[in-house]
Amino acid sequence: MAVELLYFARIREAIGLGSERVDLPSGVATVSDVIDWLVSRGPAYAEAFADRTRLRAAVDQQFAPLETAIAGAGEIALFPPVTGG
Questions:
Q1: pTM, entire model
Q2: In the β-sheet with 75-79, what is the strand arrangement from edge to edge?
Q3: Which structural domains are found in the chain, ordered by start?
């Protein structure tokens, strides 16, 4: 399944990419599975996703828990928690 991955803030800095289009392997069914797969791609990804308590996601521009299914998704964004004021 081809999907656009978007990375923000410290994740983008650790990986060195703001986005990439990838073909996810079969068996990758949730946002959490995507993160597991990304971690296996190398040390920069492992560093970026080391602390899952500090990760947030959006699937097709809708905030989503990491357990969210990604079937049919075109875009997955991964970012640290956001605060406002």
A1: 0.93
A2: 19-23, 2-7, 75-79, 56-59, 62-64
A3: 2-79 (3.10.20.30)
